[in-house]
């Protein structure tokens, strides 16, 4: 057993630190890839019903993990992120005067135009119609 103690004592603390750092960096890279994949998933599916459970099942991670990562990465929870993402897409569509607000709401994943208007006003400070009219005048 004494040779084990000698061997363990001969391992450089710097080598152990380097190995530990590499493991941590690999884990962070894997987590970053997962978050990037989740963001891509949202980009492709934001028009449909997306739940935290849907994403967790798709990526084989827990809902808690996703919630924690969204809070760490963006400072907001998943549902707020999704709402903001959808509203930002809607703002772009608002520049097309041929689309009605109800159409835009459905195109970005809101199936209730009143709820869409409520979320839009909360995020932007004005109703969708006011936003549109002020931006089309420019």
Automatic annotation (TrEMBL):
SMART domains: HTH_ARAC
Source taxon at top rank: Bacteria
Pfam families: HTH_18
HTH araC/xylS-type domain boundaries: 36-134
GO molecular function, a single term: DNA-binding transcription factor activity
Key word Transcription regulation present: yes
SUPFAM superfamilies, per database record: Homeodomain-like
Keywords recorded for this protein, A-Z: DNA-binding, Transcription, Transcription regulation
Protein name: YesN/AraC family two-component response regulator
UniProt organism field: Fontibacillus solani
């Amino acid at each position: 057993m004494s040779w084990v103690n000698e061997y363990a004592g001969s391992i450089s603390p710097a080598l152990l630190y380097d190995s530990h750092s590499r493991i941590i960096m690999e884990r962070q890279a894997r987590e970053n890839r997962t978050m990037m994949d989740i963001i891509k998933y949202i980009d492709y599916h934001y028009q449909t019903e997306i739940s935290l459970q849907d994403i967790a099942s798709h990526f084989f991670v827990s809902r808690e993990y996703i919630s924690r990562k969204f809070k760490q990465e963006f400072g907001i929870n998943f549902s707020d992120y999704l709402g903001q993402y959808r509203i930002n897409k809607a703002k772009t569509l608002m520049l097309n005067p041929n689309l009605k607000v109800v159409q835009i709401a459905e195109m970005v994943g809101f199936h209730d135009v009143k709820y869409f208007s409520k979320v839009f006003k909360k995020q932007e400070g004005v109703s969708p119609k006011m936003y549109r009219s002020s931006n089309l005048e420019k």
